[in-house]
Structure formats: structure tokens, C-alpha cells
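S.,

As promised, the zinc ion run. Input:
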Amino acid sequence: MILLYNAVFHKMTSVDDICNAILIDGEKIVKLYSELPPDNLSATRIDLNKAHVYPGFIDTHTHSFEGGLYSLGADLAPAENLRDVLDILSQTQAVSGKIFGYHFDENNIPEKRFPTISELDMLFPDKPVLLRRVDGHSCVINSCAAKSIPWDQKLPSDFNGYLKRRANGRATNWFHRNLDDQAIIKAYGKAAQIALKTGHTAVHTMIGDAHADIKHFNLIKDNLNLFPVDFILYPQITDIDLVLKLGSPRIGGCILADGSFGSHTAALLEPYADDPDNYGILYHTDEFWESFITRAHNHNLQIAIHCIGDAAISQILRCYHQVQKDNPKDLRHEIIHNELTSDQMLDRMAEADISSVMQPLFDRLWGGDDNLYEKVLGKERTSRTNRLRSILNRGILTTGGSDWYVTEMNALKGIDAAVRIHNPAEAISPFEAVSLYTSQAARLSFDEDRTGMILPGYQADLTCLAEDILSSSQIHSIKIRKVIKRGEIFDLE
Ligand SMILES: [Zn+2]
Ligand SMILES: [Zn+2]
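Predicted complex:
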């Protein structure tokens, strides 16, 4: 047994519900103490040196395979110009013979463009290269990759390497599928390490992408014990029979109802502010979603769908609302992202018991004056993005996630962004923000009786911090001292 003492343990049941020592037996918390327990208690005593301890953070939306894989490749976020992009790529180690670059944002470099196919060819004449845009909705490849990928349509004769929509999906899918098992496990292992370092003990991860199969599902399911964090798996396909055969309790993830604001493919009820004829794209018909959602719901699968624009959210919400009305069940279907909403849409979400899987860091990246949201949506609609306060006020199950690799997998930064969201009317309290990554997050996977709080009988999943989130003015930079996962202690100092 282990006694952790000299700390403030935030149980996450209510704001001031704390204790000062806890006893762990194996993987579980067995007892909480408000004062120091007697000396004759036979346990290994660990002095936490006035740490503030929270339940281990749970990131409820990641693409851990891609994040892990790209973390083994080139991070292009620090590039200040196109030369930097090419320099960083040229120094990158191949994974299974392929070069990966991620976090590329043409808006952050003065050239305002992607590298061309010939620029990539000069660096890598005979290794396939994939360079993904920061939102994952477009990419650029080199000639070696273009020759290897089995296209369903011929590439144009003036092809410059840039791909979006289906072709983007096809290319990235080819890169992801043509890796050996060892590289796949290595990618998830890298993801788990990154998660642990940022205080997480569980991570929801999408497997496959919107256009892909789920090659890794069984591989990861059979190897879950290799990783220091719990992975909660989402098979990202719409093949219900296959998902039932796999024994997954949920289906979907970032299966796309629409695209992204950055690519002008998020589906809107009113046109884009900077492109008055463009309403974005609904990727599937109402009939497609009706039939998919009804059948998955009837088979008791929890459904998760990527919805960014108000038209996409309305489309999916209509179907969720209908199945819940016809056949109410506690399945906690998910709207992932849920970025642009009206009051009426949120009322509907509450009525149908839908969960909102939010990425507070989207607001930090794209919210505020003259930023991406305002450019593509205008001021009024920007004020209706990432509406944490309005969503929580309606009692909607709301959780926090990073959409890593899109934003950093870092719960403290997410909590900080939620507390200081650009629109002050939508800001939430630090306690509420922590709950998005702990107690609420545990509910999303039906684990609320097991994780997400510090209580007797709960899994010993804890994050020990040098400072208290609830009173800090610098939440994003609080130091993580230790992470405890199922009773195992990882020192991060
Ligand atoms: Zn998504
Ligand atoms: Zn996603």
C-alpha cells in the first residue's frame, strides 16, 4: 500500500471538497484522510511536498496515431518561412521509409503558400513525403508519393502536389496504411508518452480517418497494456456491422459531417463572410445520416460525429433528436467540436441528451479580433463559437479535448483557454474547466464510477501539480510534478 500525504487532493465532486492524504492499494484508491493517518499504518509513505493533486486528466478527443506518428516526423509549427519548412523536412528521419511533416500553416509564413511538388522532389526524389496542413483538411505530397498512391481519379497534368477533400483523405490514408505493425505501435507509444508528460492518464483516440478502414483497431485493442495511459478507442468508420463484430461500444469519431473553417468547408446556414457565395460543404445527405444514426442507435452504439459549422451541427442534431425521441437511450452520442451554435441548437442538444466534445484551444488559436473566426464568420457569428458557458448552463455533458495533432495535447493549456475564452460571456470557472478534463470526461466513456474523481474505490489515476489550478493566474504553465497511473508513480521532475 502507498500513502500519499502532505498535499491538497481535489476530489472534483465540488469546488471545496478536498482531502490531505490518500491510501492506494494496487491500482485503486482505498481511503481518503482529512488529517494525517496514524503512524502505525503499514504503507509506503510518500511526501508530496504541498502538491495540488487532481484526478488524472482525460483528453476526450485525439488522433493519437497521427499525432504520435507525426511526432516521430517533422513539426513545422516553428518554421518562419518556406526555407525553414524545407530545412526542417530535410533533417527528418523516415518512419517505415516515409517522411511526415505536420502543423504546416501557410498563413504563418510570408510566402503564404504550400511548398510545391518540385520543391519536395528536390529534397526527397525517392521517398514518399506527406506534409499536412495544421487542420488536417489539406496536404501536399511529392512525386514519389503521387506515383505510389492508387488514385480513383487521374491527377491533373499541372498537379502541384496540393490535395484537399477526398484526395487529401486518399493520400493520407495511403501513408497511414503502408506502415508496419511496429511503426504503428511506436506511434501510439509516442502518443502515450506525450499524454503522460502533460498530466493525462486516459486519452480518447480515433482509429482510422474519415475515409479509411480501421486497420489498427485490433492491433491496439490487443496491446492496450503496452501503454502507460488508457486509450479509449473510436473506430472511425460508418460500417455498423464491422464495429459490432469488433465489439466496440462506440462508432465514429471525426467522421465528417462537414470540413473546417480554415479550408472554407465547414457547412454554414449563412454564407462565409469572406466568400459570399460559399456555404461550405455538407459531406453527406440527410438520408445517409438518418439511416446510419438510426441503425447505430438501435444497436446501442454510442455515436460520435465531427460537426463544425451550424449547418452540419443542425443536420446531425436533427437525427440525434429524432432517435432519442423515438427510442430514448443513455448512449451519450457525441457532437465533436460543436463550434458554431445558436441558442436553439443548444436547447435541442440538452433535450436529446447529446454530449458536446469541445476543444477550448480552438478559441485560443482562432478566436478574438481579426483572427480566423472573425475573418470567415464575421463578428456576430464569432460570438457564437465555442460556447462553453451557454452549453454548461443547459446541463449538457461537456468534455475537453485537444483534437491533437490539430492542437497540442495539453489539458492545462485547454483549461486555461476555457477560463480565458475570448468572448467573456462564454468563459467558465477554473473548477468547471478542470471538470471538462476529469469528472465530465469520465462520464463520456461511462467511467464515472471508476475514474475522473478522487474517491475510495476509484482507479488511482492522479496528476500532481506544483500549484493550484483553481487559484492560479498562469494555469497553462503550472508544473506537473508526478503522474500516477493505476497506482504506478511516474516522476516528471
Ligand atoms: Zn474533427
Ligand atoms: Zn478530430
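The pocket of zinc ion (ligand 2) is lined by residues 61, 63, 254, 306, 403 (CB under 6 Å). The chain has 17 helices and 20 strands.

- D.
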